[in-house]
From TrEMBL, chains A, B:
Belongs to the NnrE/AIBP family. InterPro entries: YjeF_N_dom, YjeF_N_dom_sf, YJEFN_prot_NAXE-like. This is NAD(P)H-hydrate epimerase. PROSITE patterns: YJEF_N. One of its GO terms (cellular component) is mitochondrion. (6S)-NADPHX binds at residues 61-65, 127-133, 156. Gene3D superfamilies: YjeF N-terminal domain. Its cofactor is K(+). It is found in: Cytoplasm; Mitochondrion. Catalyzes the epimerization of the S- and R-forms of NAD(P)HX, a damaged form of NAD(P)H that is a result of enzymatic or heat-dependent hydration. This is a prerequisite for the S-specific NAD(P)H-hydrate dehydratase to allow the repair of both epimers of NAD(P)HX. K(+) binds at residues 62, 123, 159. Keywords: Cytoplasm, Isomerase, Metal-binding, Mitochondrion, NAD, NADP, Nucleotide-binding, Potassium.
Length: 230, 230
């Protein structure tokens, strides 16, 4: 039913959304994307048993989605902490981080400690723009995620996977949940976790048609929809 | 349970949210506020029987919330149209309007025709910043809303009401639903409609405390909460 949006087209879609063509601001799209991640998490992982969420945020837009998700999770009653080793200097990201701090979300730069003291991991390291090589400290972080038994929720793309071709080797992470944004990327075909959600309910119909996407119907006012449950 | 946020404090809260103190961008807050209005509507007015929504948008931020709500309603399957006689020239509003157009939302500048052909009215003319006098064409628009039997949903403040003291005379509009944003304004005490929702789930706890707000718990990941149902 859903078609896949390969890496090059995902980049083009992003440009179309934020150019004259559609007129969106990054702040709007990121707010809706991050919210949809938080909502997906709230549907699967009860805050009582999974309150301590460790959100690993990368240096780009995927990380920004993670910051927004962390803030909404805090409003929902979860207790997120952030691993955010490479913080972009630009105002947008500084603002997103401040918003987290003002919601009592703290940084936990000690990865081992963070993983040791959490019930759930959000992988917001790399998104559809990812291309190797992986620089440190993200290589180490992905190694740790590859070894943990704590459930991982990946935002849009399981970090370290090839966006179009999936896992590159056996050391790759195996998220329990994947929240695809806008439309699933081809690597989602190789996702073997339990819950595949789609979020980012903001693509105008004409644009979905132009990109030949066959997006599913979202229920009611929901910002996410469960695509499959293995 | 909920305390009221009078006009002067509502303005100050807005400043705090978007200043260094919290670091929000207008685009983020408006997206969440407008979404919460659309979600509230979807909970009460089924799209099958109330698909034709006429959104009356004023020249300020309340109008901006209306534009965002219209876009989300379109994603939910409603068929909104806009009455938007005074369109601000600044980029933010131009973008919000373009986003509506790209979701197949049209302008209906003929107020009589718009009211005649709709199932539901969204009043996003004036918000917490409102001070008289009312300039045309909004005086005429409010007169028409005062006489209609089509249900009206007011965004944050029933337009034309005094923000702190409620109705100014018998010609004032009587919305069936009120969606207060952030916290109810004092005029909400005089609201006699059926559904009073609270939306705008973005106030950090420390700020709610600082403003002595006693905000209700939102259920799950919902962006609105029903405060009373008469």
């Amino acid at each position: 039913m859903v078609k896949f949006l390969k890496q090059s087209l995902a980049s083009q879609l992003d440009v179309d959304l934020m150019s004259e063509k559609c007129g969106f601001a990054l702040e709007q799209l990121m707010e809706l994307a991050g919210f949809s991640v938080a909502q997906s998490i709230s549907k699967v992982y009860p805050k009582k048993s999974n309150s301590r969420v460790y959100v690993l945020t990368g240096p780009g837009n995927n990380g920004g989605d993670g910051l927004v998700a962390a803030r909404h999770l805090s409003h929902f009653g979860y207790k997120p902490k952030l691993y955010y080793p490479k913080q972009p200097k630009n105002e947008h990201y500084q603002r997103l981080l401040k918003q987290c701090f003002q919601c009592d979300i703290e940084l936990e730069p000690d990865l081992d400690k963070g993983l040791d003291q959490c019930d759930l991991i959000v992988d917001a390291l790399f998104g559809f723009g990812f291309k190797p090589p992986i620089r440190e400290p993200f290589g180490n972080a992905l190694k740790a995620l590859g070894n943990t038994k704590i459930p991982i929720v990946s935002v849009d793309v399981p970090s370290g996977w090839d966006v179009d071709n999936g896992k590159v080797d056996d050391s790759c992470i195996n998220p329990e949940m994947l929240v695809s944004l806008s439309a699933p990327k081809p690597c989602a075909k190789f996702f073997e976790g339990k819950y595949h959600f789609l979020g980012g309910r903001f693509i105008p119909r004409f644009l979905a048609k132009e990109y030949d996407l066959d997006l599913p119907e979202y229920p009611g006012s929901e910002q996410c929809v469960l695509l499959s449950k293995i």
